[in-house]
Amino acid sequence: MSLTEHEIEHLREHIEHYPEKRAGAIYCLYYVQDKYGYIPRASLDEVSELTDLSPTQLDELITFYTLLRRRPVGRRLIRICDSISCYTRGSEQVLAAAKEASGVEFGQISKDGAVTVLPSICLGLCDRAPAGLVDDSEDLGELTPEKIRDLICSYAAETLDSKSGGGQQILAVLKDQQ
Amino acid sequence: MEKVLSRNFHHAQPLDLATYRAGGGYDSLQSIFGRDREEMVNELRASGLRGCGGAGFSTGLKWSFLAKDAPRPVYLVINLDESEPGSCKDRQVLYRDPHTIVEGVLASAYIIGADKAFVFVRGEYKVGAAKLEKAVQEARDAGLLGDNILGSGFSLDIDVHLSAGRYICGEETALLNALEGYRANPRSKPPFPAVKGLWGQPTIVNNMETVCHVPSIMHKGAQWFQGQGQNGGSGTHLFQVSGPVKNPGVFELPMGVTARELIYDHAGGLLDGRKLIAFQPGGSSTPFMTPDQLDTPMHFDAVAKIGSRLGTGGVIIMDDTICPLKYTRNLIEFYARESCGFCTPCRDGLPYLVHLFDKFELGTATAADHQTILELCGLIGPNTHCALAPGAVMPVQSALQLFDDEFKKHIAAKGCSYSPVAATASQAAAGAGVQGGHH
Ligand SMILES: Cc1cc2nc3c(=O)[nH]c(=O)nc-3n(C[C@H](O)[C@H](O)[C@H](O)COP(=O)(O)O)c2cc1C
Ligand code: SF4
Ligand code: FES
Ligand code: FES
């Protein structure tokens, strides 16, 4: 697990347009997280070298900022808003349904590797409450317990189809519930 | 009323530079480049434009704090961290018309004489940040950004920074720390950012919507802007209505539209069979307003006059199916979780408030607990390092006053008589988005 020379050059270039190197830390951490799905230990050393921050100082940032993570998540990361606008429209039930469909606690990876569900603060989608966000890029709006169950089911099927395999277990769990 | 921020929202996709310019985009620069800076700041003060990030501070006045001989470089930082529950306005402009942001930043940077601008975008708006980055690149390619823009002698580049989560990043000095690559703990004020901000340099921090109003004010004049408002308000604002209403959404309306018009005419009123109990006028940190205050004009002074705050103009509805205590507990839980941990009253006080509210739900609360909530709010509010915790306790204090009998009922009945919150996803088509003034 290491960055290519080309990638390191790209990161170095990005860092250079700030007066201080550490300002580029979040960009670098995002970069490795996008590459591996999380920030592995080896990458900390690489980013450390680029930014002149120690691995501990980088960990200080990672543990503060919620979108950065040191551990892998499922193939799909589903955030579901639990703040007030969504709460008044039943986010509690959406979250409960999502947890049940994933078969594990919030933040853990479902047994088939398909999903990780996380409660989230307001996503700026209050007009579409209850709202969610997949992989920090696809919006979910007007959620219901049924909708979120179907979505997780489709991610399970997608995982089953993909080379990474798995999926049977979650499908069995979902069948059990019906 | 003329739509300004949402004027291009009827297009299915964000406009590319050519189409944006064909519709008059960037024309404002003709009224700005070459004009005396102080005169423009004065015009801005006269227009009545106030910060749209929540505090409602006069934008022209803030800009006048920048010393004329301020040491270079001077920075302009745009706050696009929008995370206050109930607020979803900046996102609409980011995702649907990013050139409006580029034009607003460019116009504002020229007026304050900034050397560089940063747009600080919350991580959850990653897709929007990419759209903005694309617009910035188009502007660079067309010579609207870069060195000696349109031969004006003015040079500027815009850096789009994608943040990585946490509500506290929206507090302006915490934001500066985040941008510099530190944990987002707020800084002590003074020194204010205008004196010592990003990397110790003079810095103006503004909400995204605020700077997006600047081009049309300069192009059409302060008087025109004032005329856009109603009932004592100036300009338009992107109001938001969320919660149990028929047509939740983002609406560009005159500043000063009444809460009644906003909630009933534009947001369609409450869901069938629901009754309005209270509402927060401007995001989750604003004190409750009640149905008898529906005719209040939604502008900063009128809302402040009745003891609340216009905040972000994001209205959140509390109806008769939700327990007011449960509603309030949800608000505090947000602030408790989002506390940056820097100071004790906030870090320890807010979770303790959540704990006390839990006792009401579980039926173990006593009159002493009720009293403790009251006292705790008074202790937290004035004793914290930044405005997060005061914002957290304001709606709690408001709930204590408004729902005093509910607190007592929960104590007497040893628990809560309300049902859990029902799931009521709106039937509205996905992406209904921003709706205009009159329809
Ligand atoms: C806890 C906290 C969170 C804030 N979040 C935001 C935010 O997300 N966006 C924003 O524009 N202002 C936010 N503000 C207000 C900013 O500190 C600042 O006042 C604002 O960006 C100034 O811009 P304006 O004058 O244009 O409103 C927040 C303030 C506090 C105390
Ligand atoms: S009030 Fe809360 S958010 Fe603000 S500095 Fe103190 S701990 Fe941090
Ligand atoms: S409260 Fe859920 S998206 Fe804003
Ligand atoms: S306190 Fe929990 S529902 Fe009333």
UniProtKB/TrEMBL annotation, chain A:
Family of the protein in this entry: Belongs to the complex I 24 kDa subunit family.
Assigned keywords, A-Z: 2Fe-2S, Iron, Iron-sulfur, Metal-binding
Cofactor: [2Fe-2S] cluster
Annotated protein name in UniProt: NADH-quinone oxidoreductase subunit E
Matching CDD domains: TRX_Fd_NuoE (cd03064)
Automatic annotation (TrEMBL), chain B:
Cofactor: FMN
Entry superkingdom: Bacteria
GO MF term set: oxidoreductase activity
SUPFAM superfamilies given in the database record: Nqo1 FMN-binding domain-like, Nqo1 middle domain-like, Nqo1C-terminal domain-like
InterPro entries associated with the record: NADH-UbQ_OxRdtase_51kDa_CS, Nuo51_FMN-bd, Nuo51_FMN-bd_sf, Nuop51_4Fe4S-bd, Nuop51_4Fe4S-bd_sf, Soluble_ligand-bd
Domain (NADH-ubiquinone oxidoreductase 51kDa subunit iron-sulphur binding) ranges: 325-370
Gene3D superfamilies, A to Z: 3.10.20.600, 6.10.250.1450, NADH-ubiquinone oxidoreductase 51kDa subunit, NADH-ubiquinone oxidoreductase 51kDa subunit, iron-sulphur binding domain
Record carries keyword Repeat: no
Keywords annotated in UniProt: 4Fe-4S, Iron, Iron-sulfur, Metal-binding, Oxidoreductase
Family: Belongs to the complex I 51 kDa subunit family.
PANTHER family according to UniProt: NADH-QUINONE OXIDOREDUCTASE SUBUNIT F
Stored NCBIfam families: PRK13596.1
Protein name: NADH-quinone oxidoreductase subunit F
